Amino acid sequence: MESADESPVQLVRPDAVGPFVFVCEHASNRIPASYNNLGVNEAVRMSHAAWDIGALELSQNLSQRFDSPLIASTVSRLVYDCNRAPDSATAIVERSEDDIVPANLDLSDEQRRQRVSSVYQPFADQLSALLEHRSVQSTETILVTVHSFTPSLRGQSRQVQIGVLHDADSRFADDMLGIAKQQSRYVVERNQPYGPDDDVTHTLTKHALPRGLRNVMLEVRNDLLQDTAGIMIMGDMLFSTLNNALLPSESNPGVVHSNESNTGRT
């Protein structure tokens, strides 16, 4: 495997046979040298605008504990957001919250295609190949994407601490929510602080739904992931919830499956 400095995607534990495939699309704030930092300053490059702070470390924690593969992007979402389709208006942002991204302004079609081919396509191809390999091996697979979000947005405080997101297939999200709301001390909500209408479920709809795989997207408020201790505590909670959700639904009282998406914007 190429080093993370050279490759836009990192694959960890490719041959592990645990039940999950973990995905971290916003794992890194690395901007390849050829982009000259996209014209943004260090404060922006270190902020949530560039990556999901703590999400990679949490993904690694869960990957190790479940002996399951992890696929992570090694390129900042300011270059290309790997959780967006190439035709999405938010795949390459010109503005991230209050900050202009100068090098993303007025891109030509060829420049956009170059970002897709150099950042997104290797990531998507690697994930597809891993899922196909596990299918051929008849290895149980539940796709779990891991993200983090800020405690406030545009001056509005977010009370939710963990979001359990889904698109059309809510099976695994329902199981997780039923367990978390009974057993967790955290504020856990469905499709918060984002939902399918916010264009955040691309990885699930591209890779899990067509294969009939159970799936879920996890959003954790990043003030809970500020240090190793916080990541370990959150890893404990999610390990327990994910592990219990593997049990048949009849073993989890209070779990009600729904095909409806309860989306919410903040």
What is the CATH C-level name? Alpha Beta
Structural class determined from secondary elements: alpha/beta
Overall geometry comes to: globular
Number of strands: 11
Spell out the CATH superfamily. Zn-dependent exopeptidases
CATH architecture: 3-Layer(aba) Sandwich
Sketch the major β-sheet.
Answer: 7 strands, mixed
Strand content: 15-25%
Q: Separation of termini?
A: 39 Å
How big is the Rg? 18 Å
> Secondary-structure element sequence?
EEHHEEEHEEEEHEHEH
Total number of helical segments?
6
Integer average pLDDT = 92
How would you summarize the topology of this molecule?
Blueprint (H helix, E strand, L loop, with lengths): L8 E4 L7 E5 L17 H4 L9 H12 L3 E4 L21 E2 L2 E2 L8 H28 L5 E8 L2 E2 L2 E2 L4 E4 L5 H13 L4 E3 L11 H7 L6 E7 L6 H18 L21
Parallel strand pairs: 2-3, 2-6, 6-11, 9-10
Antiparallel strand pairs: 1-3, 4-5, 7-8, 9-11
Helix pairs in contact: 2-6, 4-6
Provide key terms for this protein.
single chain; disordered C terminus; Aminopeptidase; globular; 11 strands; alpha/beta; 16% strand; 266 residues; two-stranded antiparallel sheet
